[in-house]
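Exercise (ungraded).
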Amino acid sequence: MNDSLKKIRLATIWLDGCSGCHMSILDMDEKLVEIAEFVDVVYSPYVDAKEFPEGVDLTIVEGALSTDHDLEMIKKIRKNSKLILALGDCAITGNISAMKNLYGKEAVLQRGYFELADLNKEYPSKTVPKLLERVIPLHEAIKVDYFLPGCPTPADAIYEMLKALIEGREINVHELTRFGK
Amino acid sequence: MIREKVRVKSFKIDGICVTGQSNQTILEVAHDNGIEIPTMCYMEGLSCVGSCRMCIVEIKGSHEPIPACTAKIKEGMEVTTSSPYIKTAREMILSMMFSERSHTCSTCVVNGDCELQSKSVELELEHSATPYLNQRFEIDASHKNFVNDPNRCILCTRCIRVCDEIEGAHALDLFGRGLNTRVIHDMDEPWADSTSCTSCGKCVYVCPTGALYEKDISEEDVIKKRKIITELIKNKS
């Protein structure tokens, strides 16, 4: 197999979002078969890889950055990926994930682990990642190559974007989607 | 004071020779000649304040861009409505509007009928060039029919102008400075307690975003009647 026929190494990840954008990817339905001919999914909630691999061509990131783990992951993704696509409003604006910024990290933890808790009233100190002071969109932490807004991004917009990337041509994302769509 | 006579002035917009009356603005003459300039705070029939700066244009010989909605035309001026410099400036202005307050489209009742959202499509802005400030303001839902949510306000002042100039009540005004500026009722009282508000709803209809909205209405039912107000103003004059 020569290089031009080599499949694109694709990764997808779901950070602080609702997984709606990943549902939207699945909503491409039969078009997924067409896309699958060109891509090899090397890391994703859809597959079983545990570690984010090296040499990824394109990573699709859903969700904002809310924890120290998200921040660590996005830096690793940037290092290991040629291109990054921010998928959906959470990844691009913070969206619903960032609404807790209006009240602050302390207020959110207080509400979740004290006011609404019946037992063991304490902040989590093990295994659960620590919340950042404020939720930020991807581009406030790393360089993002493509942005595809929407809440969730419509399946057709994802399809058109992936097709364009596979074929190496530019598209106008504003004809396909917008914030809140 | 001797009133200046209205004269015809000739000048150029984007290299096209146009003429207008000396009391017209660049935006009006551009509009008469089918030249599109993006606007936000502008509303046909209301006074022009140039608060949003979306309609900025370059004028040959001037070192800074100026808003077309407030700039009166001058003989021989050369106006450029679109250039890489203007495009970048407009994107920055729009970014600042998005990042200053909490514009979460997916939780907004006017999602799909919002001029700020449409502007991001028109100007092809898919992410904010400025970091989000995450400011929080108290919502005033005291009025029986309407809500004032300063978190979604872009301070265009259309509501203030329509209340003052068309309804004649001047129940609304701006309070505070800079990032903390808010639209208030009377002397910053709850909307329900405002004695000058006539509950006509014109402010709600002209609001470009979801800052002012009608209660008990679902996202599907929200259609801001911005055109109705413009028609009303036209018929009045």
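Further reading is listed at the end of the chapter. For now, observe: The helical segments of chain A are 20-26, 31-36, 68-80, 89-93, 105-115, 155-167. The domain at 8-99+130-175 of chain A is CATH 3.40.50.700 (Rossmann fold).
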